[in-house]
Amino acid sequence: MLDDLPIRKIIHVDMDAFYASVAQMDNPELKGKPIAVGGGGTRGVISAASYEARKFGVKSAMSGRLAIKLCPDLIFVRTDFARYTEISKKVRHIFYDYTDLVEPLSLDEAYLDVTENKKGNPSASLIAQEIRQRIFNDIGLTASAGISINKFIAKVASDYNKPNGQKTVNPEEVLQFLEDLDIRKFYGVGKVTAEKMYQKGIFTGKDLKAKSLEYLDENFGKSGRYYYYIVRGIHNSEVKPNRIRKSLAAERTFSKNLSSEIFMLEKLDHIADEVAKRLHKSKVAGKTVTLKIKYSDFTLQTRSKTLPYFISDKHIILDTAKDLLYQEKLNNSVRLLGISLSNLNTEISKNKAQKIKEKPVSVQLKFEF
Fold first, then answer.
1. Would you call 109 a catalytic residue per the annotation?
2. What is the domain partition of the chain in residue ranges?
3. What integer pLDDT is reported at residue 1 of this predicted model?
């Protein structure tokens, strides 16, 4: 089946423990020490952890309280998104020296299509190595990379030799690589889905490949078709240099649970202000306002309202959020509130990048990676 597909040379670059590494770079006293970005206090949630902290089991999305139990010497540092954005732009400037086909996924990772590149280098592996070296020399941070024939395999491969390493999966190695892969390593298979697959005897790519399309559709819904094709190395998504933003949001976790709507309104005012600032900075507006409520028992509720016109004004966002807050009685005291704006007015532009016009290349042919 792979024989009929065009071969692309895709690199997935992933910065190593980006937020934590930036903090250690800016403060040499933190180098070699276990640090957590965010998560300070008893209610905070960690955004990132250094590799020294990860050895103790500290990881992102973990509460600061649990993290300090796992690692008593853990050092908490504040998030600094302005600094992360500054560094991210420098990294991307390096990417653009090699190709214009760069698709950022976040501040710390991106896909690059180097099938045809500005350096005229036929080896995607050597390009990835050169990019990683330049990031280290010019910026002072390390990055890992995955290199293969499509975005899915490149992303999976980038996690193999972290930190500060890379892995290439050549065309003739793809099928065996996927068959041997633990199902938990498949990008798009979350914890809940992995447990469900385990219950059905699916532990590796080989087990997944043995299931029919009908079986996967029946047991995993719309995702079944995705699993069926990716385990066969088929993922035709091109690197899209102009990713379309679908929503914009801000939220706050409180040091003490809130039980009064009056106090919540004060918090929503600050959150709406942050959302409006981000909208103006991104030069977008939206129609759908969503209020996110996380209760003290950690249950999550969302309430949405779609307006007949695009908005970006703080006061309209806040008024709509207020309406949603009073829409129905709260189930419990509240530990987190968030506001997001979706259904944005971003125009869906056609991908202007020139498509690769090569004839399909057999995976048995020599194709330098």
1. yes
2. 18-80, 179-233, 247-344
3. 55
